[in-house]
Specification:
By secondary structure, this protein is an alpha/beta fold. The chain is about 30% helix and about 25% strand. It contains eleven helices and twelve strands. A seven-stranded parallel sheet has the order 3-2-4-1-5-6-7, with helices on both faces. Helix 6 packs across helix 7. About 40% of the residues are buried.
Length: about 325
């Protein structure tokens, strides 16, 4: 049985997540979609706004599902599977809409830390909505808003019809997350095909963008930023593992997401890895092709990352 694809919708308060979800449910005709809503308050209203096009809507309103890593989200995921296995509900895809103040990290980790959830679901990608009208002030005031962008596989810039063009904001988003494409949308109008099957958490040849966007010399505007490390020489597997363990022991809480494709010495295949904070995994991919120039590329996205220390740690591998 193929695992069920999961898409996480995040973004700061008022960015337009529910509007986007409603549009997706209206447009998507091929997949049956279940929805998990997380909202505050005793009277949930987002499920009413979404309408009746979802196969099932589960509302979690006991607080933000990212705050304590209580079992509420895991229980909801398992409950959906239970209904699926009993034939009470069928769905091809699950969408989770986070609250505007949610940290996506603990939500993502739920799909790596529970044996049954790992087996039956596959995290397809994180979609982050950004309010073009208020983004600059939100990014200045709230590190969480930057973190939400850092986790993204796709960034959707909303309210662009009101805010107008803002190339500085686009550059700022790309500095925060060097690997996520940015799409401008109005009233949630976007082709769902651009948001689904992003394979953001799949270890395959698309683990990294072919040419990550990165501008190394920029004014410091964000606590969250991207670092791209490229190595033109093969590295020892044990040595690079030691570097990663060193980095994680030193500032795992600062790391949001990280991905890499490594050229390992004396190995014909590339090694792919990815992680979210302290959780990471790696696997061998296909062999380097005769017309390829092997190299290692690593992307780190995090808060107040010690860039010089990271680069120095990998530079030491040249002589390892």
């Amino acid at each position: 049985m193929a695992p069920i694809a999961v898409t996480v919708l995040t973004g700061f308060l008022g960015a337009g997540k529910t509007t986007l979800l409603r549009q997706i449910l209206h447009k998507q005709q091929n997949d049956k979609i279940a929805v998990i809503e997380n909202e505050f308050g005793e009277m949930p209203i987002d499920s009413q706004l979404i309408g009746d096009r979802a196969t099932r809507i589960t509302t979690l309103s006991n607080g933000c599902i990212c705050c304590t890593r209580s079992n509420e989200l895991e229980d909801a995921l398992l409950d959906l599977l239970d209904g699926y296995d009993r034939g009470e509900v069928y769905f091809d895809r699950l969408m989770i809409e986070c609250t505007g103040m949610a940290d996506p990290g603990p939500i993502i980790q739920a799909f790596f830390a529970h044996e049954v959830i790992c087996e039956r679901y596959v995290l397809d990608g994180v979609i982050t909505l950004v309010d073009a009208l208020h983004a600059d002030s939100q990014l200045d005031r709230f590190p969480l808003a930057q973190a939400q962008i850092g986790y993204a596989d796709r960034i959707l810039l909303t309210k662009t019809d009101v805010a107008g063009e803002n190339p500085e904001l686009l550059e700022r988003l790309q500095r925060i997350n060097a690997r996520a494409p940015v799409y401008k949308i109005v009233q949630g109008d976007i082709d769902p095909a651009l948001l689904f099957n992003t394979r953001g958490f799949m270890l395959d040849e698309h683990v990294l963008a072919a040419k990550p966007l990165f501008r190394p010399v920029v004014p410091k505007q964000n606590s969250v930023s991207s670092i791209v490390v490229e190595l033109s020489w093969p590295v020892e597997l044990a040595a690079v593992s030691a570097v990663m363990e060193e980095l994680l022991s030193g500032f795992a809480d600062n790391l949001l997401r990280y991905k890499g494709m490594l050229w390992i010495k004396d190995q014909p295949c590339r090694l792919l890895f990815q992680g979210v904070q302290r959780l990471y995994n790696a696997d061998w991919d296909k062999a380097w092709q005769p017309d390829e120039t092997p190299r290692s590329t690593l992307v780190f996205i995090g808060s107040d990352l010690p860039e010089s220390a990271i680069r120095a740690a990998f530079d030491r591998l040249r002589s390892a």
